[in-house]
């Protein structure tokens, strides 16, 4: 779902001024931020699949490392929740604050299991 939303932003279906706290100043800046965001989302999907046992993890990434990375994503989503609370856009505050809070809790669970 998140990747679909980022695709809508990248294709101009969703105005970039309504994302990233309403602080993006240009399309070029949006492309940079969205590229980073899509990349991180793909990493998170792979991480969740690996921790859930649906994807064989790389032997160079033992379960303890995967748990630590899940903990890092938990912290990032917690910080993102705070950022969403400070967003200029009511839509971002109202919709994405609870979503990032849920994502933080989900990664906390993956980190602790």
From TrEMBL:
Protein name per the record: Uncharacterized protein
The record's keywords, sorted A to Z, are:
Membrane, Transmembrane, Transmembrane helix
Q: Has keyword Transmembrane helix?
A: yes
Membrane-crossing ranges are 31-52, 64-82
User: From which domain of life does this come?
Assistant: Eukaryota
